[in-house]
Amino acid sequence: MPLFRRATPRIEEKTEQALARTRRSWFGRIAGILERGQIDEDLWLELEEVLLGADVGVRTTEKVLGRVRERVEKERVRDPHAVRGLLKEELMAILMAVPFRGALWGEDAAQAPALSSAEGPRPGVILVVGVNGTGKTTTIAKLAHLYRQEGESVVVAAGDTFRAAAIDQLKTWAERVGAQVIAHREGADPGAVAFDAVAAAQSRDAAVAIIDTAGRLHTKFNLMEELRKVRRVIERKDPTAPHEVLLVLDATTGQNALIQARAFTEAVDVTAIALTKLDGTSKGGIVFAICDELGLPVRFVGTGEGEDDLSPFDAEAFVEALFE
Known about the structure:
Mean pLDDT: 87
Number of strands: 8
Largest sheet: 8 strands, mixed
């Protein structure tokens, strides 16, 4: 079956476009910083300002620049322009060091995930979680579209039974991308919807079942407990599932995304991140903080509003887009 292992030219182009604001606002300044002619303390302070401004985070910024400075001294680098290459390599290392957590999307964090595999579980069950307003429902539709483009059948569970019109919204998206929908009435038990969706995917030999859930604040204990219940219901139908727990984060929220990710990981053991609205922020460096501080792989990035605007994350293409 086809694999999304490497960034295609189209994915690279979309990633570059999505990172335009981050590149213009922050990383684009690096070339000017390195024109100073010497490697001194001011150079390191200015690079630190760039990384912090792009939301790379204090801890990760210190780690990256510490490694670059160590290499500059050890390798006796004298040309400031050589620092650029070292910085790119250390940022890449942050993304590549993320451990593999799920069962569907490949072991190499430097590469885009495999969307289909003859060796993976079938149906793969993907539980999608996140706070309100992150673009969770549209991300599900875009993910379903990626699978449909690979010729795979997809079952989507309308598990957000709380928000008004959420079921109809998901049905409209699913019809557009060619996915099958399992839905109950508004206010129904979301666990029952998830159970029925997994059962339907099994009986129809679908490649994946993608389970939507109601958006919830990570600070609300009862809502997070409900999410745990949905996961337990899925496990009763398939003890190996969910095979991925995809947390949808809004890139424009910056460091608050880390707080959300910690809470959801504690509740339902998140395995992967989809970072939405990357094209709407100058803070694209949050990707490095997520990978470094949480050990969670970013698997998809939202690059626009259309059904084609969800790109499998490729670390090399991402770092290149920040600098080029």
